[in-house]
Amino acid sequence: MPAAKIVGEKGSVYALDINPVAVETVRRKIKEKGLKNIHVLLADASETGLPDESVDVTFLFGVIHALDDVDAVMREIHRVLKVKGVLSVQKSWWSERKLLDAVTKNGLFSFKEKTNRVFKFEKNQKTST
Hints:
Elements: H1 2-7, E1 13-17, H2 20-33, E2 38-42, E3 55-60, H3 70-80, E4 81-90, H4 96-104, E5 109-115, E6 118-123
């Protein structure tokens, strides 16, 4: 829940999970802490329902290896991120090469930097084919 403090009262945080139990756990914690700027979504990461270009930063922490369709999730994240939006991915048991390839292979994101186990990518603008 540190993201709620970082964005402040005027910012918004979307916490998304496909697992109803996880969503309810987050809702309970938000209520206990009295946080008003976190919106919890029960959704698949490949179909968030969020508006186009509505998000500044996205985080995939501890989940990329468990995604059924990484390409679909990358397309959805690209869709919802604003221009110059950032995707941060925490390395799990995948190799660095596999993680980098999974995120950048379709040209939607460019690798920017790595800090410890967190890889930062920037949204590329769509290219016409």
